[in-house]
Amino acid sequence: MESIPYASVVGSLMYAQTCTRPDISFAVGMLGRYQSNPGMDHWKAAKKVLRYLQGTKEYMLTYRKSDHLEVIGYSDS
Fold it and tell me: How many CB atoms lie within 10 A of CB 42?
């Protein structure tokens, strides 16, 4: 596993998950658990997530400018 960029791939997936793809949050969270000692099964799972992203690249969150912004906050003491 020394030559396999597992940590880099998981880091990239975390960035994608945070910015535009919350649908991969569970899978990326599970992959992140094995950052310190990944095995070949973890690498195969990471590649499966990458293939999922390739097949669904038209799905994403889009942030648009809005003239009407309403901030609502709740607090419970």
Answer: 19
CA-to-CA distance for 22 and 25, rounded, in angstroms? 5
Domain regions of the chain by residue span: 17-54
Q: Which residues contact 52 (CB under 8 A, 6 or more apart)?
A: 24, 27
pLDDT averaged per 10 residues in sequence order, the chain, 77 residues: 90 93 94 94 97 91 83 89
Q: What is the pLDDT of residue 35?
A: 92
CB 53 within 8 A of CB 16: yes
DSSP 59: -
Instruction: Please tell me the pTM assigned to this model.
Output: 0.76
Residues 9, 32 contacting (CB under 8 angstroms):
no
CB 37 within 8 A of CB 75: no
Closest CA to 52 of 72, 23, 15: 23
